[in-house]
Specification:
Elements lengths: L6 H26 L1 H24 L6 H25 L5 H26 L5 H18 L4
Helix pairs in contact: 1-2, 1-3, 2-3, 2-5, 3-4
């Protein structure tokens, strides 16, 4: 039985590299150059949302592996950056901050799961929700949160 290089295998292998790159870049970026790392996340998040929208509309079907990698890289990198910011400003209570983060992450995952289960079959609603949430995150962080 020979090994084949199909799309799902490519997505798994490249997503692992994208997750590692996102964790490394935004983890070290928080420690070394916070402002610049956050601006890079802004650009990457907007480009990723644009690529997801184009992929949903059928224009970038051949780049679905790249779009998946960008989603993983921006998602994990942004999560690590914002969690690092929360723990950096924890006011001597890192355990309560970590538990608040995990609670918010769990609630967010349940909301996304709800939208993906009920509206994912050919609907553009999850893509619009992604765009609105990324723009809301950028707007809130530009007002001075992290």
């Amino acid at each position: 039985m020979g090994a084949t290089l199909n799309l799902s295998f490519m997505m798994v292998m490249t997503s692992l590299a994208a997750l590692t790159a996102g964790l490394t870049f935004w983890g070290l970026g928080f420690d070394r150059c916070r402002g610049q790392a956050l601006r890079v996340w802004y650009v990457m998040a907007v480009v990723t949302v644009l690529f997801v929208l184009l992929n949903h509309l059928g224009y970038m079907r051949s780049f679905s592996t790249v779009v998946t990698c960008m989603c993983h890289m921006c998602g994990v990198g942004g999560t690590l950056y914002f969690q690092s910011w929360m723990l950096f400003n924890a006011d001597q209570s890192p355990m309560s901050t970590a538990s608040a983060y995990v609670t918010l992450l769990g609630v967010a995952n349940l909301i996304v799961l709800f939208f993906m289960c009920f509206f994912a079959a050919g609907s553009i609603l999850p893509v619009v929700l992604l765009a609105v949430l990324v723009l809301a995150t950028i707007a809130l962080t530009m007002q001075g949160l992290p």
